[in-house]
UniProtKB/TrEMBL annotation:
Keywords: Signal. Gene3D superfamilies: 1.20.1050.10, Glutaredoxin. Transmembrane segments: none annotated. GO terms for molecular function: glutathione transferase activity. This is GST C-terminal domain-containing protein. The keyword Cell division does not apply. It comes from Prymnesium parvum (Toxic golden alga). GO terms for cellular component: cytoplasm.
Amino acid sequence: MSAGKWLLPFLCHAAAALVACPSHAHVLHSARVSARAPVVAVEDGKPAPSRGGVRLLEWIPSQQLLVTSARFAWNTLWKVMLSELAPQSDDGDYVRPAPQMGTGATWPAELPVVSGRYHLYLGNACPWCHRVAASARLRQQLLAKTGPPQPTQFLSFTRLVSDPQRASRGGWVFDSDDPDPLCDAADLKGVYDRCTPGGYSGRCTAPLLVDLETSTIISQESADIIRMLGQVSLNPSGRAVDLYPTALRADIDATCKWVYTQVNNGVYGCGFATTQSAYERAERGVHEGLSRCDELLSSQRFLCGAQITEADVWLLPTAVRFDGIYASFFRCGRRQIRSDYPNIARWMKELLQLTGSDLFDLDAARRSYYTDLFPLNPGGIVPSGPSAADLGFPVGDGPVEDATAFSWRSV
Ligand SMILES: N[C@@H](CCC(=O)N[C@@H](CS)C(=O)NCC(=O)O)C(=O)O
């Protein structure tokens, strides 16, 4: 039987019950309640108001018809919404779109390294923004929002707010307490338009690195931004933190590759899968990847040895969101970091301290995932935890200094 044949009677019956006969539904409802009393909770001697709905089953000839039609309608809508949110392969796997523009992973030679000219647009919930912010923090390049600038800091940044209802495209808007410094845009689309002669078409993603002086986009790809920021420094001390030391490059590249595929993108593969087998593939990969990280961290301080590298910066955003968000929201919590990956848990607390726990707000991120990605959670209920406090995360502190955690390069 065609889908429309199931859907139509269901919608007609539902509409009739809702629109034409609300009082009928109420009568039926009252009759049922009195016949089966007591079913209503009594508080202070008064029955609590009952909200039994329109009692569709009284109107629709068969429960099977109701369930089949509702499931079909719900599933169709979910698949349509999810294909807009997250492109899919024919097998139901999530396929992350490729970035649309950027200058590659090399800092453009024509851009002088001066303080205040380059600006990052970053959203708290976004893991790709988080890894850019963490790398810039570790290299002491990020200008603080308040207080006098330090000599090493050359990047200003704006905190984007996630609000797909307010944004004209994508999900990012500005709030009045952290406005856009480029053109006072209302949303990130306004920034993309301003930087694109003739107007911008495509996804308006964060992170975004722009040159405020020429109103041009330098890059919208987090991996490239991390790499290119490692090639420039304002550090007057003659040495700078090196997250990509020459001797470790092959190991860092290889580690980043599987961390990205299995863990960073793997959790999205779980959450955005539209078939059971696609979900199971992604979920297996996530825990294989996490087990491999945990094993490495059982014998060394960081993923590629005794010092922090880009590989640690890549793992961090997914690790800190794992128990509090992805485990439940993306259904990959078969094993959790706090109980099953003790070495990642130890490493994560250290990374949070070194990057500064004020860089990321887990509880705000959880609210954002659960409400803004509404096709995955149409009711919009946000779980109460586990919160940052439940997980024992440091909260709101600046970065802890520890020179032994880093490789250094001469500048
Ligand atoms: N390749 C990009 C992906 C960034 C990305 O997907 N950002 C998301 C937020 S987590 C975004 O801005 N999405 C808005 C949209 O797709 O419209 C990177 O790693 O920098």
